[in-house]
Design brief:
single chain; 481 residues; alpha/beta; TIM Barrel; M1 Pyruvate Kinase, Domain 3; Pyruvate Kinase, Chain: A, domain 1; eight-stranded parallel barrel; six-stranded mixed sheet; 17 helices
Length: 481
């Protein structure tokens, strides 16, 4: 199945979408990657969902990515007497280690790491930022804060500390168990929450190794401070605008979205824009004009994918939401100004064979006007670099590794196909590329394709060749150079 757009669509699975029939309909509507949110899914349910997606992929003969999203650390208040209090603006509020029920002036905070790290002047945000406080004094047993924005506060509400670098791992005990399970069923991507620094990614890498790719959810201000090192350490990124908008001034989020997207693109690593993209479609069959513009902006910026969360997980209109995203993306990509905006800035290729081949492929394709670029890949490196160039034509990734095809399903403009690894000559490679591109509708008789690959065959990381080939009415290679 060939999509008519280059940006990819990610959908979160939940009660509204977890049945086999609904998952198949969502794939038909345009989903390229399914997200399993381990904040809500048990191991049993995650395993069932994984099997259902893999079954659809096999039946449809089309790679589908699976993203396992870890919950990460969660900080919550203790209990209040009566479950709910009113915190007065301008007053003082105390967080302490006393487990007795809280009052309008104090509450138990069951997280010793916060007491260790917080300092006077740091901000404390409660209940998704609805209440805001500023620390006046802090010790190992007690934090005194001035209430800057008060209001109603209930038991067990969340606590955020945008100014504080917390001495904790992004992997909780629950995350370790979830991670081992997800690696066992062989998901394609692991989304890592609560990343504050590159060391957090490296810690996860020690456990994950090469078993799957790591996607960092950029949701902490501290991650912005160490963004370059995090980009070097990770395989992909999610602009988690919900938490980012709680912990930073919300007006900064659009600029940060652009910054993260551009840096990820420059590194040749997939970037997903997420959170509240079509929020109103949780309850409405049509989105707001602002939401349509929001999705369009991410597409214009060249994000690899846009993601639905509650819209597809618990919303009333999951299929309509995916269809709407699909239509928005197609409309943007056919806009006369799309290419100029997409290529308003370009990065220089790195001094690596993959970068050199990708840059050359883009330049040659622009000159010769071929119909598609076909990349043979085992590690995904060359395909990612070609996609980074955001070429104005189709890109196919041919790989003998099914897991790699699934992983690449999230990459901008890349149509992956699993092939038999029985090539013995360059002419075999060209013949196979022409046949598959013709069968999949990427090239017509008389048109050409550009093929990248590596010699000797079967060795990963050896991309060192570019060929141009043309096809006849049977999809056979008739000329190459």
């Amino acid at each position: 199945m060939r999509r008519n757009r280059r940006v990819k669509l990610v959908a979160t699975i939940g009660p509204a979408s977890e049945s086999p029939e609904m998952l198949d309909k969502l794939f038909e509507a345009g989903v390229d990657v399914f997200r399993i949110n381990m904040s809500h899914a048990s191991h049993e349910l995650a395993g069932i969902l994984h099997e259902r997606v893999r079954e659809i992929s096999a039946r449809r003969e089309h790679p589908i990515g699976i993203l396992g999203d870890l919950q990460g650390p969660k900080f919550r208040l203790g209990e209040f007497d009566g479950e709910r209090v009113n915190v007065v603006q301008g007053g003082e509020f105390v967080f302490d280690r006393d487990e007795k029920a809280g009052s309008p002036n104090r509450v138990f905070l069951p997280h010793p790491q916060i007491f260790e790290a917080v300092e006077p002047g740091h901000a404390l945000l409660l209940d998704d930022g609805k209440l805001r406080m500023r620390v006046k004094a802090a010790s190992a047993e007690r934090i005194v804060a001035e209430v800057q924005i008060g209001g109603a506060l209930s038991s067990r509400k969340g606590v955020s500390l945008p100014d504080t670098l917390l001495p904790i791992s992004p992997l909780t005990e629950k995350d370790h168990k979830d991670l081992e399970f997800l690696l066992g069923i062989e998901v394609d991507w692991i989304a890592l929450s609560f990343v504050q620094r590159s060391q957090d990614v490296l810690e996860a890498r020690e456990i994950i190794g090469e078993r799957c790719a790591i996607m960092v959810k950029v949701e902490k201000p501290q991650a912005i401070d160490d963004l370059n090192a995090i980009i070097d350490a990770a395989d992909g990124f999610m602009v988690a605008r919900g938490d980012l908008g709680v912990e930073m001034p919300i007006e900064k989020v659009p600029g940060l979205q652009k910054k993260i997207t551009r840096k990820a693109r420059a590194a040749g690593k997939p970037v997903v824009v997420a959170t509240q993209m079509l929020e109103s479609m949780i309850t409405s069959p049509v989105p707001t004009r602002a939401e349509v513009s929001d999705v369009a902006t991410a597409v214009f910026e060249g994000a690899d994918a846009v993601m639905l969360s509650a819209e597809s997980a618990v919303g009333k209109y999951p299929i309509e939401a995916i269809e709407m995203m699909d239509r928005i993306a197609i409309e943007v990509e056919n806009d006369k100004g799309y290419e100029s905006i997409l290529h308003a800035w370009r990065t220089q290729p790195l001094p690596t064979p993959s970068d050199a081949i990708a840059a050359a492929a883009h330049a040659i394709a622009d000159t010769v006007h071929v119909a598609a670029i076909v990349c043979y890949t085992e590690t995904g490196s060359t395909a990612l670099r070609v996609a980074r160039e955001r070429p104005g034509l189709a890109v196919m990734g041919l790989t003998p590794i099914a897991a790699m095809a699934n992983k690449l399903a999230i990459v901008w403009g890349l149509h992956s196909v699993v092939v038999e690894n029985e090539l013995v000559s360059v002419s075999d490679m060209i013949d196979q590329a022409c046949r598959i591109a013709f069968e999949q509708g990427f090239v017509k008789a008389g048109e050409g394709i550009l093929v990248t690959g590596g010699v000797p065959f079967g060795q990963s990381g050896t991309t060192n060749m570019i060929r141009i080939a043309f096809v006849n009415e049977k999809g056979e290679a008739v000329a190459s150079g």
